[in-house]
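We treat protein structure as text, and this decision shapes the records that our systems exchange. The remainder of this section carries one protein's record, kept here as part of the documentation:
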Amino acid sequence: MDTHLDDTLIGTRPGTASHATPLPLSMAAPAAILGALLVLAGDAYHLFVLDDRPTQAGTAAYSAHGVALMLGLLLLLLAALSVARPGRLARVALPAMVIGTALVVGDIWAEVVVLPGVVTGGARELLGDDISGQHLALVIVAFALFAIGWVLFALSMRRVAGPVAWVLVAGGVIAFLPVGGSYVTLAVAGALVVARAAQAERVR
């Protein structure tokens, strides 16, 4: 069995019998690229089209952007898990990344599928940008786990991915911020990290 050793991680290569992955190594990079494109499409809607969430909620374009974001983030997650290197840092990074991404996707699902129906019943403020109380606390926890997971994953891949891993660190931090296009850097850098990791494994 081949092993991988660097200053942070000690473990087996992705794709070996002792390290099951959600996607075959050959599919990791294509899945990550497709995921990044879907995220870019969804975030482009946020940046250039969405200006009144309560009014636009329930439209086909609003629903499509949410579906694109959810599918894109899930594809990026599966691809990242498929090239992740087992080790001490990964034991923290991967659970945080999985749980955080699941919570963020759940939040997007609620905004796209659940809340538009609630709004038609007269609770338009639920889709506004101003949230508070328990809702705000839950959103902060979800996005904090999401950001921490992706930042730690990037750090665990810095040896194989090179400088682009630090771009993914920045992407994780930006994704925590309540700004338009917050997933763009993470999506692009995440796809590049996966592609470089998959290429490195193929030439070993």
